[in-house]
Amino acid sequence: MPGKARSKRATQAQSAPKTRAKAKVRSKKSARPKAKPPLKRSAAKATRTTDKVVLLSGGNPQIAKGDGDAPVKAYIAAMPEWKRDIGKRLDALIVKNVPNVRKAVKWNSPFYGSPKQDGWFLSFHVFTRYVKVVFLRGTALRPIPPGPSKHPAVRYVDLHEGELDEAQMAKWVKQAAKLPGEKL
To answer: Which of 166, 69, 151 lies closest to 112 in space, CA to CA?
Structure first.
């Protein structure tokens, strides 16, 4: 009997590692990530043809940060519904009243800066029901823009559909562009 017991134990010991080995092989195969096929088109072409701009909460477009007119235009073009019209009008008003204005997109918002000074004087951001215009040195403007901020120098103007007062906004933009810009 002892001989049979040994052979039985030996048989069990030999078969157990094989099943464990098979299980390990299976789990390794399933855990391997599949290789992605190489892109056939250039990244720029893929961006133009297949990628759509992601709208974040409130409808704010997710645009890659960048300096210059192109990222700001891309942001405005991606603004949803009536907000796009406000974005175009704001951009045109700023360009008209501040020649050679510097532009950039940072933190998913367009920023505008005076060409003669460092820093930024204005930004805007899309929310669900309005577009928020941010004057980074708003407490120095006359009249002071209505929206308070946690930051002592910043003031806001919330623009709802059809509410852009271009005459007042132009006055604020001219004043803000003359002030020292906020470095961010």
So the answer is: 69
pTM strictly above 0.85: no
Instruction: List the one residue out of 123, 126, 107, 125 whose CA is nearest residue 181.
Output: 123
> How far, CA to CA in Å, does 140 sit from each of 93, 99, 135?
20, 21, 10
3-state secondary structure 124-156: EEECCCCEEEEECCHHHCCCCCCECCCCCCCEE
- Buried b vs exposed e over 5-21: b needs ≥16 C-beta within 10 Å? eeeeeeeeeeeeeeeee
Name residue, tokens 């933009």. Answer: 173
Q: pLDDT tens across 132-143, in order?
A: 999 999 999 999
Question: Per residue in 52-97, pLDDT tens?
Answer: 778 787 778 888 899 999 999 999 999 999 999 999 999 999 999 9
Residues present in the chain in total: 184
Decide if 91 contacts 122 (C-beta within 8 A).
no
Burial class (CB in 10 A: 0-12, 13-18, 19+), 84: middle
